[in-house]
Amino acid sequence: MSVLVLPATPHRPRTDVEAPTREKMWSVLSKALAIPDLRVAWLQACESAGVTDQPSLSPQALLQVMEEISRRGGVVQILARSQIMRIKTYLFFSAQQRAGVP
Amino acid sequence: MIPAASNGDPVQDLNRLEEIARLRLLEPETGDLLQRFVDRASEDLSMPTSMVSIVLDEAQTFVAARGLDPVMAEMRGSPVEWAFCAHSVRSGREFVVKDTETHEFGRQSPLPHLTGMRCYAGAPLKTARGHVLGNLCVTGPNEREFSQADIATLKGLADEAVAMLERRAKI
């Protein structure tokens, strides 16, 4: 599991932000979808997002795919929205780290 | 009594997540319906920032808010392990932090550093089925001792908000 580490500052504890992966997204969504349904939903979402499915999807591509999946109702929407928030957090801090913000 | 998840953590409880879906809490119009409750919370407790935070399985999301700092205005939520509101999902009770700089969880969470929040009070949004969806909460930039009357006000608004959501779900 890849993790973005934000070192501690005088006012902030060390903070670890988990990098999103395709495996993690599948693991979460499988709580609510059987694997064959998940496979179909995932490929449909990839197609709608204009993304080619592959194991090493970028965080931005994963965000697009999860946004497509979140359009479904029920618990799947809840699980997807939860991961969207985590991916956005990762992207936010990645950008801050690149910009040198402590 | 808080329903337990298979791993014992109410935050992860699929029945609770189904309740969030049943009440359509992530629909865009829900934020508009809940805005008056966060406005009243800020006004009644004289606090600059207020939110309805819905606690999902691995993140919290702010479906209605007032006075958010620029970072949270952009993010509209956080990972669940940073969320003060997740404490109420687990305990079923209000959660109060007088001073984030001296409170154990306040020192662990990155949110005070990111947002400048120094105090927090949240009342659970508890449904008739006993699930806590998240909190109606207020935060501020200075330490504050919240009175019993403050907490009662928040709790009253939280109960009113849930009653409105339950009525909407029956229509």
Short description:
By secondary structure, chain A is mainly alpha-helical. Chain A contains 4 helices and 2 strands; from the N terminus they run E-E-H-H-H-H.
What is the typical, i.e. mean, pLDDT of chain B?
A: 95
Distance from N terminus to C terminus of chain A (CA atoms, Å) equals 23 Å
Instruction: Return the average pLDDT of chain A rounded to an integer.
Output: 93
Shape of chain A: elongated
**Tally of discrete structural domains of chain B:** 1
How many E-type strands of chain B?
6
Distance between the termini of chain B: 27 Å
Which ranges of chain A are low-confidence, i.e. pLDDT below 50, for 5 or more consecutive residues?
Answer: none
Number of folding domains of chain A? 1
Strand content of chain B: 15-25%
Which percent bin holds the helix content of chain B?
A: 40-55%
Describe it.
The complex is a heterodimer of chains A (102) and B (171). Chain A has 102 residues and is mostly helical. In chain A, 58% of the residues lie in helices and 8% in strands. Chain A has 4 helices and 2 strands. Chain A has helices at residues 22-29, 35-49, 59-69, 74-98, and strands spanning 3-6, 15-18. The longest helix of chain A has 25 residues, at 74-98. Chain B has 7 helices and 6 strands. Chain B has helices at 14-22, 28-45, 70-75, 86-91, 104-108, 111-115, 148-170, and strands spanning 49-55, 59-66, 77-79, 95-97, 119-126, 132-140. Chain B has a 6-stranded antiparallel sheet with strand order 3-2-1-6-5-4. In chain B, strand 1 and strand 2 form a beta hairpin. The radius of gyration of chain B is 15 Å and the shape is globular. Chain A binds chain B through residues 6, 9, 11-13, 15, 17, 28, 31-32, 73-75, 77-79, 81-86, 88-89, 92, and chain B through 14, 17-18, 20-21, 26, 56-61, 71, 74-80, 107-110, 112-114.
